[in-house]
Amino acid sequence: MNELNIENLHIAVGGQEIVRGLTLRVPRGEVHALMRPNGSGKSTLAKVLAGHPDYQVIAGKVLMDGENLLELEPDERARRGLFMAFQYPSEIPGVTIANFLRAALQSRVPEGEELEATDYYAKLYEKMELLGMDRSFTSRAVNEGFSGGEKKRAEILQLAMLEPKYAVLDETDSGLDIDALKTVAHGVNSLRGPDLGILLITHYQRLLNYIVPDHVHVMVGGRIVRSGRKELALELEERGYDWAREGAVEPVYTR
Amino acid sequence: MSLVTHQEQAAPILSGPSDLREFPDWFRDQQHAAWQQFEALPTPTRKDQPWRFSNVALLDLAPFKISPPLSEDDRKNILKYSRGLDHYAARMIFANDQLIERDVVSEDLKRRGVIFQPLERAMVGHADLFGKYFMSTEATLGSAKFAALHKALVSSGTFLFVPRGLEIKEPIEIFHWLRHDNMSIFPHLLLVTDELAKVTVIEHFRSCDQRAAGFACGVNDLIAGPGAKVNYVCAQNWAENVIALQMNSTTVDHDASALSLNLHLGGKYSRFESLSQLIGEGGRSDLLAVAVAKHQQEFDARTLQDHASPHTASDLLYKNALDDRARTIFGGLIRVEPHAHFTDAYQKVRNLLLSDDAEANSMPGLEILADNVRCTHGATSGQIDEDELFYLRTRGIPVPVAQRLVVTGFLDEVIQRLDHPAIGNHLHRLIEEKFATK
Looking at residue A248, what is its pLDDT? Predict the structure, then answer.
């Protein structure tokens, strides 16, 4: 039961079906990679899991530890343990990282209780050090004027602070140079453990050299065509997505 | 003293100046002349351009009275609640225009020539200096009638003079309280800085009773001498039944800079007129304002950035957040006089609409009579960005908290411009409190 369970999920955007029967289970404690060709479905899956109102779920279920995720509001999903690291995180002018994370943690304590400020800052600085972030970051506005690498680091910092049960990392490697990639991977690896299930969505094998997954799934045409151990990623890199498509149980049509 | 007794003893403001207070003859004559002027000037109507969009019907002064002396209990309580900044150089606390307390400036500052006195003392002790600057600029942005009323009925206030080359490091704090129903006050600040002086002043406007009606008709005149640096902050937090008018004039001499930041939170109708005159080369004026308008509040701002000298700069940034059926009005003009070449003048108004029923009116304007001028102006209105809201929600933050974060973030750009963390925190706290109350 302790798993993020996506069952036969169909998603449409603007009347067009983008995800067509996706089934995937991520047990807590494991790291799964979902690989897909560049440009297919963009961030659709991540947005739907997070609860974005513009995406329409046509069919299927998403259960988090047995609970129907799709019935919950975006903020409720997060408070119950889902975290989404976005490919293009929003900029929030005038809201500092410190205030933002504080509000996010405050929303997780029972009503009427106050977050302990000293503990909060101690934890924040500890996690920032882990990610090689300068303390001055806390007084900068969320993602405003951040470089690509800084944005991704800030996403992982949030992951570290919010301690979710499941984290979906959407194209976390995109736009990162090798040093930034290593730092981010180090941060993610340090959070791995029995209490966290991770789903990495990526189209490059590169990231998986640094965050080594337990399982790899290949998605083409909106559904999974192959699943396997970590070696599958290398094989995919070598043989390409066409090869993966040929291995599908039933024909897959790509747009 | 019970409320009834207090009301009974109070004289209506429309009965004109009383001769109860001890003022010098010249000042008393001035008050009577101003009263005649007040009576002669017509009451504004919406057809007058400076009052376009304004709800002038709210300006009925008949219910408002001049307060008799406050009780000892009142004075004690007001003193107790007069908390603003943790550190200040000196402060004055007024309630119903009566001086409750004065924490004078240090002996050192006094010895070096700083004057920090209530108006009625300054007009006697420093008659020349006071007389030279007291209401020396005409109110041209619509409120001539109310400026006359202020001049006729002002009975106390603050006079601050900072001598040449002196810097007062900590801010000077001034409190103005309204106590009891239907009382009126005429807060006054006259700030004069000599060459190269530096000072920061914050004025707090507050009500004792959150349901009480009241009328505040204030003037603040800021005079920045050559090379001087003046920061002025107004934290207006009247009860929501108060009618408030505030008339500001800022005069900036050569190489001087003035920055005023006005936070408007309270009042049923709150009008703010700000005239910035750049009279010497190299002068700079920053006009900043933040308003949070809820319920049926109306905030009415009228400004003039008047460039009378070359190589001067002015930068206006006004931000309003409007909820419910609240209204804001901005009418602003940049005027660059014929010889004021090489002027930089900016004017930016941003409205954030949190409700479909809120209404933001903006009338930006330019009048450029010189060459080699850089001017931009613009006013925009928008709603909360849905993507920002969604992002915050995916971190577990519930919608009302997420909205509040986005709004305070939106307003923060203005407060940051002051670059004074202690005052910035204080203003943010007031904004938070306003959001926290229904």
Answer: 62
